[in-house]
Sequence to fold (757 residues):
Amino acid sequence: MSMFLVRVLALAIALLSPCLAVHVAAQEASPPATVRVLITESRTGVPLPGVLVRLQPGDRSAQTDAEGRAILADVAPGTYMLQVSLVGYAYVERTAVVQPGQTLDVAVPLAEGVGTHEERVTVTGGDRFGAREPGAISQQTLGGADLQNLRGTLFDDPMRAVQALPGVASSNDASAIFSVRGQAPQRARIFFDGVPATAALLHAVENPEWGSASLVNSDVLEGVTLLSGASPQRLDSGIGPQLEFQSRNGSADRLRVQGSVSGTAVSGIVEGPLGSGGRGSWLISARQSYIGWLASAFEDEDEDEEDETVSFWFTDALAKLSIGLTPTHRLEGATLGGYFDLDIEEEIVDPNDLWNAENRSSINYLTLQSTFGDGVVMRQRGYAVASLLDGRNADGFTLNRNRFRMVGYRTDLTASLSSAWTLDAGGVVETTRHQVDDLAELDEGSTNLLRDSYDGTANTQAIYGQARWQGEQNVTVNAGGRIDHSNLASETTVSPWAQAEWAATPATILRGGVGLSHEMPTFAHVIGLYAGDNLKPERSWTYDLSVERRLPTDLRSVVTCYRREERDLLWRRDGEPRLVDGVELPGSFASRYENALRGRSYGVELLLQRRTSGRLNGWVSYTYANTEREDVERGEIFPADYAQATFRLSHQSTVGVKYLYGSNYPMRGYYAAGPIDDDEDETPTYLLTDRRNGARLPTYHRLDARWSRAFTYGRSRMTLFVEVTNVLNHANFGPESYGQIEKLFPFFPSAGLLWEF
Fold:
């Protein structure tokens, strides 16, 4: 029996041996693999440390080191989903096919913000402070991560992030407007993807200082760029700063859904591929704000004041598509629209008080980009912009009616003629119609008072060109000019500019520039109720000199000095109430616009900024600006309406702190400081006087704090954010109406959630 068992076992072993051999061979032929991941910032190419890299299934994870690298060893062969997550950056998923024994290298550029990863990225030579507009001397740029940290959850508004930029002044919590180098907010030229959007990009009624927010959701923006001083005037001509919002494209790899809810708004984004092979993408975004219920909580409850309840809300949406028609032609189009509603109820009814207002705005464009050869790129864009506003009193009588419509076409050409020479040129034609009726209801059944009224159409044309030379001695020279014509003012202007940059050492860069700019009279100046005669374009000469020093630990310091000389500024003499020889005089309805003023401004801007792939980023800046206006006929000299010294502190990581300080604006008009009210906030008062802009609003300062934390679940990510506005509960004040001020936002906490699928 034992011999029989031995023979059976021997036969079994003989039969099973080939199978065991095949199994062992298979084991030996499938050794584990290694996955090496490099994570960089898509805009600058700088490595990102502390990024979570995970393989699913299996839940294998690692974090990138100081060089942006992560290694996942002993990975079994197979197909995995590689997930990359860093708070403040896009959430990325990529399919990884791992072969036996393979060392798989994967490079993932991460885009800032909460957008999606895009394979087509532009790396700015590894400069961690970002790309510069050719010829720009004074430029500030916000990426997606900066927008997320600085926008504020109270309004969820990218314009609030702009207000935190170095050199930008803003002292009104409820308003999205801002001032640069002492210039009025109305001077700012705002663009959305290169389309003129100054008249349509703000949710506002009648006066943006009363309360406003931008029309676009921060989550669909790739970045924001602010240019001031002697910069090239490719997009438009004007004597103020230039602000451009750049929207991002949708996801070209798969369908993605994102939702966000906070104490003041709810928003959502759906995006996905368009066409095959990643040729294009589409994106749809919508946002609904319910901040209106907060407004009544912030109203002054002083028993001596009239009871007033303010409620407002807004909604906006964006639809965008981008597709490559051929390898050399790409089509892109977008439509952005919004609706704003304001309701005010007062215990004492005045027929000239605004009770309800509605504003509807839209921005639409279609762009074709074509590449010819190796160095010629042409962009053609057609666009239409509209803003429609209606304001009514308690009886439903229309007090304000404003209709703005613009259509235009522009083309831009960039040609690399050689390794040293680059040429930019382009032109634009626009037709604008603006209708305004601003009424006052004197008494029921009586004739109404016309405060302003006009209806006109203007045609404008412009061409520009500039040449840029980059020498071998680290010297770059940029020179160009722009010619504008408007039939509204029957004027043609020529605006030249020139800039130079010299990298004296690898750590020291000197920049200088000079430019002449013009601003045409508007409809109100030319055909409005207070229209003047033979008005000339306003003009400004600007001189900038900047020194940038790169310091250790990813720091840079920048010192910029500037001077601006303005001539032929438009103003209505005697249009404001004032005190003359002790007698109060109201503003004169007979005054007309004149080229009555000349101005001068000079100052220095100091910036210390750290931008690193590490944990601590931010800047500290200080701006001193002295801006004055002089009535050339009367010799009256007064500070500009928006002259202010500003101080900014911004530190961002997963914990962000924003501190704003300003000497504040003058109390616009002929006012002097009066007695302080005997209340908890010590509210100042203002009295009429014979000196314009002689009194200032109280010093403004506000500390905000924000905390964000990201959590990854399967193939989705949730980001929790908590923010406190005005941590110190400092009583800040802003202008309300002639000689009146109002208290701005107090201490206010808020929180929200963002889901990405």
